[in-house]
Write a structure and sequence with these properties.
The protein is built from seven helices and 13 strands. The chain is of the alpha/beta class. The protein has two domains: 7-107, NAD(P)-binding Rossmann-like Domain (Rossmann fold); 110-243 and 250-270, 2-Layer Sandwich (Dihydrodipicolinate Reductase, domain 2). The N and C termini lie far apart (43 Å).
Length: 274
């Protein structure tokens, strides 16, 4: 996938760590995981080098501690699986303690999906609707559906608005229970949005509708490289695209905006008694 062979260290050989490893077949890959007997190392302290590209794919609740260990160790290039940390306070602490010469990349995977990037080119947007439905699987125990699922549409929404030279003004949670949350809001430029996130659907399905002055652009994951009123979109692998951006040190540059919006939703979600 990449012309130069690089040393890659994956910290956390779980579900996503194994996916990342499968994308790095052409590179030297070493793994760190105290709970996986197939890993090369059991602890970060066991490694006597700091060069290479480091991937943090441990549970979100451990990111803060792992990142601080990598900073102290002297590691310079770090990819961290979304979210950077499970709380805004921890995220802000990480950015305050990150050495200036450390490149920290967070994989908001969908932002490198060709269809999402194409939708970001839409102009004169009035309203955005998103549905992010899951089939009841793959929610880690240390996060809520907001931290694990809502981060995807929230990061996409932030991406769209920044492309429109706009930002989120307010967010309201209008419904929430253990498996679902409904989010409404508006940007400072007047774009309204509605996001439904659920972990109790019969199947996984993601959909986005963008209402512009002239037409409606619709996309869904059943046909992920096609946009209604645009047509076919070039097929790409979003995870591989993220890795390319990480390797070339090309960051999206606004993870704190996403973290603040996510924290806002998490606080409102918690106010419903969850």
């Amino acid at each position: 996938m990449y012309s130069l062979i690089m040393k890659c260290i994956i910290v956390g050989l779980g579900y996503f760590g194994k996916i990342i490893k499968s994308k790095l077949n052409d590179h030297e890959v070493l793994t760190v995981d105290p709970f996986n007997t197939a890993s090369d190392y059991k602890d970060i302290s066991d490694i006597d080098f700091v060069d290479g590209k480091w991937f943090v794919t441990t549970p979100a609740s451990t990111h803060h501690d792992v990142l601080l260990k990598l900073f102290d160790k002297g590691v310079k290039d770090i990819w961290v699986e979304k979210p950077i940390c499970s709380t805004l306070d921890d995220t802000l602490d990480i950015f305050s303690k990150k050495p200036d010469d450390v490149f920290l990349y967070c994989d908001f995977t969908w932002l490198q999906h060709a269809s999402i990037k194409k939708l970001g080119d839409v102009e004169n947007v009035k309203h955005i609707e998103m549905k992010w439905l899951n089939d009841g699987s793959m929610i880690p125990k240390d996060v809520t559906i907001v931290t694990d699922l809502a981060i995807h549409p929230i990061s996409i929404l932030s991406f769209f608005l920044i492309k429109f030279k706009d930002v989120i003004d307010n967010i309201q949670v209008v419904y929430a229970n253990n498996t679902s949350v409904l989010i409404n809001g508006q940007s400072k430029g007047g774009v309204t949005f509605n996001i439904e996130v659920s972990n109790s659907s019969k199947k996984k399905m993601r959909s986005i509708s963008i209402y512009s002055t002239d037409t409606v652009y619709r996309w869904n994951s059943d046909n992920e490289f096609f946009i209604e009123n645009v047509g076919d979109v070039q097929r790409t692998d979003a995870i591989e695209e993220n890795i390319k951006h990480f390797f070339s040190k090309n960051s999206i540059g606004y993870p704190l905006d996403i973290a603040r919006s996510l924290e806002n939703v998490n606080e409102l979600f918690s106010s419903f008694g969850h």
